[in-house]
Backbone:
């Protein structure tokens, strides 16, 4: 069975080699198509910004015990809007693209969406299916902005593509600034809400502490000379409740101070490892990629055509295997 399979394989190879002229034509057509596609595709440039999450370095330890501070350093701290992966998801969202569409483009006096509608060029074949009115600048902006995260190093690379390298660099820097403003705003909202929550908790803890203090003091004043066992038990219970209330109030106070510090502290969600620069070398179109794709499609189609034709001839002649 294996021998027959090998024979069929080499017979197929020999049959394809007999049609070398067909493959030569396929290669010529693939080369021509790659050249036409490359010439017809507008040139795109990319600008990149690399940032690193530094929330770990700027996090506060106010109000934490030594054990809590140690645990905070051991556990993952990048959660919610402190997670750099959340940054990447937000950058590539449509909502972020809508924000970027309103950014003013320097030197053009118009928004980014208006700039794309006026200056963005499409390949000629797209005009066969879509009119200029069908161009969605928001979707185009969303496609132009990409983010790649490296979780081991907590870094993120933002890439913005455009047909003008200067505009690509401007928009890459604008993406960084908008992301920073968004993260700072969201983290401040969380900090303010946490501060409000601890304000309520400290009021409740203080009320409990004051009530326990008054009850304990009143009982001690009214039972100064009593030595009854039952009264001693009540005294200890009141004293324990007073101590617990005091500890709870003290902890609530520390948490309140901590959340207040988070509200007032300067917020730097990430640092810039590499700023946006104008890159003169285009990232597309890529002639080699187009050529390989057309060659692959052409060779596969030609091979199947040759082999199916041979198979048909064999079946027509009453043969089941190649000679």
Residues:
């Amino acid at each position: 069975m294996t021998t027959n399979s090998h024979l069929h394989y080499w017979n197929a190879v020999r049959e394809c080699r007999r049609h070398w002229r067909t493959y030569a034509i396929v290669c010529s057509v693939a080369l021509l198509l790659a050249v036409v596609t490359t010439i017809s595709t507008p040139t795109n440039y990319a600008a990149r910004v690399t940032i690193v999450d530094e929330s770990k370095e700027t996090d506060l330890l106010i109000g934490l015990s030594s054990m809590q501070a140690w645990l905070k350093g051991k556990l993952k701290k990048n959660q919610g809007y402190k997670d750099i992966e959340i940054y990447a998801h937000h950058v590539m969202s449509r909502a972020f693209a809508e924000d970027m569409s309103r950014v003013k483009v320097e030197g053009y006096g118009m928004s980014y969406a208006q700039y794309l509608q006026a200056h963005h060029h499409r390949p000629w074949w797209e005009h066969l299916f879509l009119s200029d009115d069908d161009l969605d600048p928001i979707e185009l902006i969303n496609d132009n902005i990409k983010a790649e995260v490296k979780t081991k190093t907590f870094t993120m690379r933002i890439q913005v593509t455009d047909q003008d390298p200067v505009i690509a660099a401007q928009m890459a820097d604008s993406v960084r600034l908008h992301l920073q403003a968004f993260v700072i705003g969201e983290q401040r909202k969380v900090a303010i809400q946490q501060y409000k929550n601890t304000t309520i908790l400290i009021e409740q803890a203080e009320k409990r502490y004051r009530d326990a203090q008054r009850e304990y003091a009143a009982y001690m004043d009214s039972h100064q000379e009593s030595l009854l066992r039952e009264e001693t038990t009540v005294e200890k219970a009141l004293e324990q409740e007073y101590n617990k209330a005091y500890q709870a109030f003290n902890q609530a106070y520390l948490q309140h101070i901590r959340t207040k510090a988070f509200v007032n502290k300067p917020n730097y969600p990430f640092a810039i490892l590499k700023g946006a620069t104008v890159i003169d070398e285009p990232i597309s179109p890529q002639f080699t990629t187009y050529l390989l794709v057309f060659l692959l499609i052409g060779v596969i189609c030609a091979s199947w055509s040759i082999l199916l034709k041979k198979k048909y001839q064999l079946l027509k002649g009453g043969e089941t295997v190649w000679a």
